[in-house]
Structures are given as structure tokens and as C-alpha cells.
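tool_log.txt
---
The assistant was asked to compare two proteins side by side. It first ran the structure predictor on the initial sequence, then on the second. Raw inputs and outputs are pasted verbatim so the downstream comparison step can read them without reformatting.
(1)
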Amino acid sequence: MKIKQIVSVFFLVLLIVGCTSKTPYTNRSQMILISDEKELALGEQSYEKTLKESKVIENTKDSKRVKEIGKRIAKVANKNYDWEFNLIENKAKNAFCLPGGKVVVYTGILKVAKNDDQLATVISHEIAHALARHGAERISTNMVSQGIQILGNIAISTQAPEYTKSFNIAYGLGSQYGVLMPYGRMQENEADEIGIYLMAKAGYDLNEAVKFWENMNEGKKESIEFLSTHPSSETRIAKIKNIIKNIEKKK
């Protein structure tokens, strides 16, 4: 069994070396270990399950707004995805985009997004996650984390097996707070940045993006950023303002 595990880790390292790409707009190097086909299949499966288990709002003013804004941004995204945009009845102030361009907006977010430009902020952010393949990147990061943990367990089991449990606890906490959560915050900031560029290309008012996130923060008790997968509202708003300034300088 140990030999098989070592071989698995060895091949994982080979995959890491050969599977790098660049994110759009930010040009960040990223590691992705799953194929486009696998990613799209996972996205489609999750999307169908979501629609089946939810109340989809159709043929209303708001549902049409979501589709129209989504299509406008998707057009400038210039990515050959089968884009879909649906409004779902849910009080949560949230939205998400699954791999392949399947965007879901909850009705709860409409209480925060006061106009089309602010709603475009939400949708462009979610589209940005899909363009940057953040879902596939998270899966890949977890694969690497698990591979390293396997390698560590093999090493400890041969040298000091009595410390295996302690190693796994320490490694789990270290990877969660030292790698996975910071990675999540980085992806959120990157989706904000790409989303702002998409809004600019689609002709939306960028200053409304700042107002949207101020609305999201209103009356909200902030969690400690270090313990979250999302940046604090203060950090997020400051970075968005800088991105807008940089875009305006280039005009």
C-alpha cells in the first residue's frame, strides 16, 4: 500500500510541473490538475441539481434583468461557454457561478443591488470566477494538499508512528488557515478585479461597484479576515477603488 501511495504522490508532482496556466486580465500563474471536460461536467451536474432542488423565478422583471445583464457581460467576456443566468428564490444575499458559465443569482441579493450597475457588479464577479477557473483551481489545491499529507504520513509512519495523529491535526489546521483560506481570499479579490474590468468593457458605472459592497457591509458584523475564505469588506472596497483608479488612468 505504501508503495502505491508513494507512486501516486510522484505522479502528482509530475502533474503539478506540467499543468500551469494564466488567469485572464491578472495574468496570475495557476496550477490546474483537472481537464476542461471534467470541470465542465462537474459544473453541469451541480447546476442541474441546483435548478431541480430550487424555485427558479421566470418571466418576471427581475429574472429578465438578471438574464439581460448576464448576457451583456458574457458577451465582452469573450469565452465560448454555454452561458446561462437564472434567478432563484432564496433569502440569502448571494450568487454563484459554476464551471462552464452557469450563473445563479438569489433573490436576496436584489435587496442589496439597488440598480442594474450594482447587479452587474455581482454577476461580473461570478463570471470572473468561471473565466479564471477558480473552481478547478480549488479542486487542484485540495488534491495537492492531500498528496502532501499522504507523503507526510508515509514518512512519519516509518520514523515515528506515534506522532501520526498529531501530525494530521497540525497539518489539517495549518493547511486550512495557512493555505486554503488565504487562497480563497486571493480568488475573491481576483474575481473582484476581473469583474471590474468586465464591467468597464460592458459599459457599466464602476463607481456603483463600490456602492454595492458598501451596501453589503451595512449593518454587518465583520468576521476576522484571517479566519475567513473572503476578504473583509474594508479590504475589498479599498482594493476595488484602486482597480477603478488604474482603469480610469488608462482612459
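(2)
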Amino acid sequence: MDILQILPYFSPKHGGSATSPYQISRALSKRGHNVTIYTTDLDTKKSSFEINSGLRVIQFHCVANIGGLLITPAMGNQLKNEIKDFEVIHAHNFRTYQNIIVQRYARKCKVPYILQAQGSMPKIGKKKGKWFYDQLLGFKILKNASKVLALTETEAKQYKQAGIPSSKIVIIPNGIDLSEYNDLPLRGMFRAKFGINEDNKIILFLGRLHWIKGIDNLLRAFARLKKGSKFDNILLVLAGPDDGFLSTLNSLINKLRIKDSVLITGPLYDREKLEAYIDADIYILPSRYETFPMTVLEAIACETPIILSDKCGITATIKDKVGIVVKPSPKEIQIALLQLLSDEDLQKRFRDNCRIILKQFDIANIAVKLEKLYNEVIEVSDPK
């Protein structure tokens, strides 16, 4: 099968919205399909994914970033010339310049395309730029897609609220390449690299430093925990690229007087990221909103107990199995941290459950489901 994947980013800096399509593409390539990726060159100089020998990756120059739309005019010319070479197109994220181009040429040349919003559906109408995109282009792009992919039931409801019939919505979760976790780093490597005492309890947040991640509430919870509990050897590690929120976090850290107990590492990728998960006693994601966080799957793969906000779309998978689900408030986060740090038996139970839970997210199985979906939309568009 000749498959075109469209994604606006090709750097792990952009989290799951970039990592998931990349892993999907690799898994499909391993299954013998011809996979081409059209993407942009935004941030790829600092960090980019490895280009697998089975993938054809074309990074188009981003000439401008207009309200989050990454303008890549050269992609239109390439797609115009190549679109008939593809049997199906899988477009990732919702409000992108690339999707405008895809919709135009896919309809013109009668090539089916699938849209996967990757958690970007919400806030339709909340901001003027997004409202105009949705009214002028977004709803049209959704309507003309052969299928739309949801990561969770919550995201499926968001498609329905946008007017998409249930018959066009397919739920397939993100996946993870389990082979990448067969040879995990030894415990203590992250601690040694950053001079962390082996007696310290590490609470890890790993992701973009953005307001939506709820890190400010985590800092308040951590300060309360430090002040009111028996744990004086706890360390909060914030790992990830700054997405406009770092200065606010630094100000809050100083205000709460917890600077000596907070380590900000900057972005961690590849082995360094795994070392952080392995050494962490808890991985926490207190997001104000999240559809399907890839970092949670990564933490599970490293057998790290989790505290997760109930605003995340995969709480049913986590709750009481590999972690604790809480409301993203400082008080509830503090209570959950204290509970998990104090209960070694609970930590062990969560760690023991991780590999069992992870099987359902094996990227090889996700690729099979996508393959079936691709074949379905190809047959409908070109019945024999």
C-alpha cells in the first residue's frame, strides 16, 4: 500500500502530536507498506526524529508561522505532482495549513484521506483565529474526510459536536513501540548525571512547559507537601522544552520558596528521557486538558507509578491499575503525592501492572488496525 502521512512537526519537541504519527509510520513501514511523510522543517535543526530506512521523509521549508499555521507553499506543488501515487492519505492534527492543501488536492484527484485531530479538536469557537479557521475551512476538511480518527471516547464526542456522524468516526488509541523498552537504562544514571542523592524521592513531570499542563498547580501542591509532611528529601523534576511558561514557573518557584527542591532540566530525549522515567518514584501529569498523553505510555513502559489529572482522556486505563487519578487542584495533587510516596505496597502494585496494561497499546497492533481502516476507505473510494 502507498501511504502518505501528513504532519506539521517532525521534532519530538512537539510531544505526542509528532511522536505518534512518526511511530505509526515506522510500524506501517515494517509491515511492508510504502510510507511517505510530508512535514515541515520547524524546529528540526535542534531536534528531529531519526529517518528510518523504510521511510521517505520530505521536510518542506516553513516560510511563516501565522497564528500557528505553518506555511509551506512548496508542499502544494509536490502534492500536486505526487498525489496520484498514493492510495490513501492520513492527515494529523486539525487546524493546519497542510490540511488545507490536502483537502484541496485529495478531493480533486479522488484520493481518500483520513483526519486524526490528535487532541486538537477542542476550543472550536473559543478564539477568533480558530473560529475563523473552523468556519472557513475546518468543518469542510472534517466533512470531506473519508473517516476521522479519535484517540478516545471523549474525542469521538468532540467530533460529533462538530457535526460528524458516528458512522465516520473510528476510535484507535495511540501506540508505543515496545521494542524500544527492551533494553532500559540502569537505575541511577539520571541521578548521577544531575547529582541527585540516591535517598531523594523524585517526582517527575516530563512534557512541554505550557500553561495547559497544569505545572503551576503541581508546584503549589509540592510546596504544601514539603511544608506539611514527613518528606524532606523529595525533589520535583520538570523536564521539557519551554513553551512560553518557564518564566512564570520560575517566578512561582521563588515565591513558594522551593527553589532548592526543584530541578528544571530542559528537554530530554531518547535515552536521557528513559533514564528520567526509570529513576523517578512518580510520574505526574496534572494537565488542565489532554486527550491522549504519550508520556503516560512511556512512563508505564518504564514501570513508573503515575498520578494523572482527570482531564486526561485515558483515566480509565490508569485509575487504580498503574496510578492515581485526581482533579488538577493543588489540594488533590498534594493528597495523591502523599498517598503514593507513603505506600510502598501501592507503588509495587502499580509497577507490577504496567506491562499488563501496556500490551493493548503495542504499536504493532495499532498498525494492524490502521491498515484495516486504510483498506476500507480505499475500497469505498475505488470499488472493484
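---
observation on (2): The first strand starts at residue 2 and ends at 6. The two ends are 16 Å apart (CA to CA).
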